[in-house]
Amino acid sequence: MLEQALPVIAVLATGGTIAGAQADATSAGYKAGSFSVNDLLAAVPQLSGIAEIRAEQVANVGSQNMTHAVWRALAERVNTLCQDASVAGIVITHGTDTLEETAYFLSLVIQHDKPVVLVGAMRPATALGAEGPANLYNAVALARHPDARGRGPLVVMNEDVHYAREIQKIASAGLCAFASPNRGRAGGMHGGAPCFYSRNTTTHTTQSEFSLALLERAGWPRVDIVYAHANLQADLIEFLTDSVDGIVLAGVGDGNATDLAIDALSRAADRGVAVVRSSRTGSGFVARDVELDDGSLGFIAARDLNPQKARILLMLALSVTRDTAAMQAVFDRY
Ligand code: SIN
After folding, report:
1. Is 96 considered catalytic here?
2. 3-state class of 62 per DSSP?
3. 104 FRET partner, CA 20 to 30 A, in 40, 92, 163, 317?
4. d(Cα 29, Cα 31) in Å, to the nearest integer?
5. Which residues does the entry assign to the active site, renumbered to this chain (predicted)?
């Protein structure tokens, strides 16, 4: 009998704690992005039983240093690999700090339904009980599985599977650091196979109107986040008004802020800066025209997107329009 060839999975490494090294196996401190992609793969010899791996080092950084330049390189590479009929799926190893942002960005600029799975680890590779090897095994098992197709980029951490739009890092330490607070997990990994609990009903990949080419043409519009708090003043917003294309308010509660800040944001909107209201609370929905009159203030409501993902969607929306109503329609659709 002919032996069946194993599916080819491309593993693109970008660094993070999954590739982190400590001075010794019990120390709290470590350096993210110390090991290469080949080191990571060597720690999981079981992968040779489920896939033919093609490894590439795209970057090797702690993901607090993730940049738009790395996103550009990753998106270009993933789009190319998606066109390669010999590749069944793609795995991206990534630091956990901004993993959700990279996953969401890719979900909007990759126009393919091939599985793309992002994975990280909370414990460095040298730690006692490092979970990176098991996470990486699950990521490859997920990327080669037919059920992973057409769902947009997925994240696998700690045997949970999350959709790119929903996942959030919710704790600074510990193994249970990820959740999908609004719509719930996509599914789980059981014995090396996924079990999905829900479909991804949001707009992504093949339905996305955005692309790297549009973003390049628009010069990657600059969008910054203002974090609301008691006694927030106007001057930070006034400073930003002159230097950004968009501001996302990480607002208190239902996307609110002091009267001083709201007035300054409205003046920014009058001057052509796109202003999105989101919530710093970590979950829930910021509804248009409920707590504030977005229509007369010139604002856009982020609905259930967190501030860091609203920043990405606003950047992409600004690559196709400067019209506030059209940008609100983007937030309503995505
Ligand atoms: C990072 O995001 O690169 C550091 C933290 C981690 O990966 O857990």
Report:
1. yes
2. coil
3. 40
4. 7
5. 17, 17 (o-isoaspartyl threonine intermediate), 96
H or E element that contains 279: strand 274-279
Nearest CA to ligand 1 atom 1: 95
SS3 90: strand
Collapsing DSSP to helix, strand or coil, 238 comes out as helix
Residue 124 Cβ < 6 Å to ligand 1: no
**Annotated binding-site ranges for substrate:** 63, 96-97
In testing the pocket of ligand 1, which one of 96, 99, 136 has its CB within 8 Å of the most ligand atoms?
A: 96
Extract the tokens encoding 289.
């025209």
Domains with residue ranges and CATH for the chain: 8-205 (3.40.50.1170), 221-333 (3.40.50.40)
Q: Where are the alpha helices (DSSP H) in the chain?
A: 37-42, 68-83, 99-109, 132-143, 212-217, 235-241, 259-270, 294-297, 307-318, 324-333
CA 54 remoteness from chain centre: 23
Cα-Cα-Cα-Cα dihedral of 24, 27, 32, 37, to 10°? Answer: 40
d(CA 172, CA 177): 7
Residue 100 in contact with ligand 1 by CB distance below 6 A: no
- What pTM does this model have? 0.97
Task: Give the pLDDT confidence of 140-190 residue by residue, as tens digits.
Answer: 999 999 999 999 999 999 999 999 999 999 999 999 999 999 999 999 999
Encode pLDDT of 87-117 as tens digits. 999 999 999 999 999 999 999 999 999 999 9
